[in-house]
Design goal:
Elements: E1 19-21, E2 24-27, E3 38-41, E4 43-49, H1 52-63, E5 68-70, E6 79-86, H2 89-102, E7 106-112, H3 118-123, E8 126-131, H4 137-148, H5 156-174, H6 186-196, H7 201-208, H8 212-225, H9 231-240
Parallel strand pairs: 4-5, 4-6, 6-7, 7-8
Antiparallel strand pairs: 1-2, 2-3
Helix pairs in contact: 6-8, 6-9, 7-8
Length: about 240
């Protein structure tokens, strides 16, 4: 059975994998001289913890893995692994600071995680969450690589709680005000949809029974808010983000 980082002895000696090039480490075929060693791109990771024992445990878990390279002092990392006992307001501020310092995604290892806090964690830059009993070396590597690739890694029950929370937010807060998660009103979305279908401003106004001036105002507000130059860019931006 693979031990979690809590069970790793601090006195253990684990050989470091030699760096072949920037972000590359040797792998495979090294023992017994059979085969030529291959190379796999390693994710450079910085480890931050609220206590030194937890940090030492995670460090021991990861330094034996060829997929991971633990950042040296002053070395730029691709992912931050943050370790804490529980998630509260102070922890969320700490995580936000870790994320904003270098703009790096955060993988959180925590003893307790409340699904209701997930939206705040996502806002703080957390892209992966592992509970301590589940934080084996394999799971840590998987979460780190997912974060480095721009993906998320959440336990299924936490993901379900996050989706339920977002659905409730959309239903109780955004919809009554005429907005959605995209930040568009229903009228803005409809205007963009018709523009994407090739209608002119005048044709959109006739279709929706608005004045042409109103439609121009809607387009102008959108381009200013999204910091775009014209309606063509607004339509392309909306299509790219799946808003229409």
């Amino acid at each position: 059975m693979t031990a979690t980082y809590d069970a790793v002895a601090e006195t253990a000696t684990v050989p470091a994998f030699p760096v072949q090039a920037a972000g590359m480490v040797e792998q495979g075929g090294g023992r017994g001289g059979a085969g030529r060693p291959g190379a796999v791109e390693a994710v450079v990771v910085r480890i931050d913890a609220r206590d030194p024992i937890s940090e030492a445990g995670v460090r021991m878990q990861l330094r034996s893995r060829p997929e991971i390279q633990i950042a040296r002092a002053g070395q730029l990392a691709a992912v931050v692994v943050a370790v804490t006992d529980a998630v509260d307001e102070e922890t969320t501020r700490w995580l936000r600071g870790l994320h904003r310092a270098d703009g790096l995604p955060v993988v959180l290892v925590s003893g307790r995680v409340d699904g209701r806090a997930l939206s705040a964690l996502v806002e703080a830059g957390v892209r992966g969450v592992l509970r301590r009993p589940e934080a084996t070396a394999d799971r840590l590597v998987s979460a780190v690589r997912s974060a480095a690739a721009g993906h998320g890694d959440l336990p299924p029950e936490l993901l379900r709680q996050l989706l339920d929370h977002l659905a409730g937010l959309n239903r109780q807060v955004l919809n009554p005000r005429g907005y959605s998660f995209s930040g568009l009103t229903e009228r803005e979305r409809t205007v963009l949809q018709l523009l994407a279908e090739g209608l002119s401003t005048r044709e959109v106004a006739l279709r929706l029974s608005y004045s042409e001036r109103t439609i121009k105002t809607v387009i102008q507000d959108l381009t200013l808010r999204l910091q775009l130059r014209n309606r063509t860019q607004a339509v392309a931006y909306a299509l790219r983000n799946g808003w229409i």
